[in-house]
Design goal:
By secondary structure, the protein is an alpha/beta fold. It has one domain: Rossmann fold (3-Layer(aba) Sandwich). It is built from 10 helices and 11 strands. β3, α2 and β4 form a beta-alpha-beta unit. It is globular, with a radius of gyration of 17 Å. The N terminus is likely disordered.
């Protein structure tokens, strides 16, 4: 589950694509910050955050993006998610963390606590909520990929201000090596089932590699079941799950990194070199614009 690090898309190109998709509703300003995190309760290692926030005056809710194992916090799709959220009225940031390896519920949960502990003034969420334009009483939402999807879903275990969580490439079993049922199955995480949305590629090799395993992963995390042939299953508020089909993506192969472009070459698709335009700008329920709109529905403007 390691994603080779690549250079991020230039900000101008990202904003141009967002404008074409209708997401660029507001001008944004970039920022950087640091926090203390790690894989132990000490949370004493320095990590970076890369963010954007609306340029106009005011107070805004917060969105946090968490990347996957080995993914740079400035990967192209991390940058795209942050830019899209800021354009929709969030103080948004992607957080770097100790993601060189995967782990158990305990290990990943501790990494998440270092990010989302509201009582630790050095945590990522404390640093973001202290920004002049941030108002976390309006709500916090999270979004992540792979290991980041686990941290996203578990985020409310630490901070009750987190109103909704979205996971991409999310499940309870990652290959045969990691069983996360105790923390990721519905009822094991503090986030309400009707505040979780899971989006998995139909060929996601880490949660099983088939349409069935992609569906069951979404069902297990959200506690929502539809028919065995369903490609998506939503509650009235948009929580639930979606299985991205091969025909949905431009390279024709919706695997773990369906938001990337690289065909059935996993290393190419997950390298972060290219973002699938259908994901970044598309109208599908699985695409970035719909994800940000869904998250926005749970916070106070």
């Amino acid at each position: 589950m390691n994603f080779p690090r690549k250079m991020a898309l230039k900000a101008g190109l990202t904003l141009a694509l967002l404008a074409a998709s209708g997401l660029a509703a507001a001008a944004t300003t970039a920022f950087t910050a640091t926090y203390k995190g790690g894989s132990t309760s000490a949370c004493n290692s320095s990590y970076n955050m890369s963010g954007q926030e609306p340029s106009t005056s005011g107070k805004y809710p917060v969105m946090v993006y968490i990347g996957g194992t080995g993914e740079s916090y400035t990967s192209n799709w991390a940058n795209a998610a942050v830019a899209a959220a800021a354009a929709k009225g969030f103080v948004a940031a992607s957080v770097q963390y100790d993601n060189a390896s995967f782990g158990t519920c305990a290990t990943i949960g501790q990494r998440g606590k270092c990010i989302f502990d509201p009582n630790n003034v050095n945590s990522a969420i404390a640093k973001l909520c202290s920004r002049a334009k941030a108002d976390c009483s309006k709500g916090v939402v999270t979004m992540g990929l792979s290991q980041g999807s686990v941290i996203s879903v578990l985020s409310r275990d630490n901070d009750p201000r987190i109103q909704a969580s979205l996971g991409q490439g999310a499940g309870t079993t990652y290959t045969a090596a990691y069983n996360l049922n105790s923390c990721m199955a519905a009822g094991g995480h503090a986030q309400a089932n009707d505040r979780v949305r899971i989006v998995n590629g139909i060929r996601d090799m880490f949660v099983g590699g088939t349409a069935t395993t992609a569906r069951v992963s979404g069902e297990t995390v959200t506690g929502l079941k539809c028919s065995s042939t369903s490609q998506s299953c939503y509650r009235a508020n948009g929580s639930g799950w979606h299985v991205v089909q091969n025909l949905d993506v431009l390279d024709g192969y919706a695997d773990h990194c369906f938001m990337g472009y690289g065909g059935n070459d996993y290393l190419a698709q997950c390298s972060g070199a290219l973002v699938d335009a259908n994901y970044q700008n598309g109208s599908g329920a699985w695409a970035l614009p719909a994800s940000i709109t869904w998250l926005k529905s749970f916070v106070t403007p």
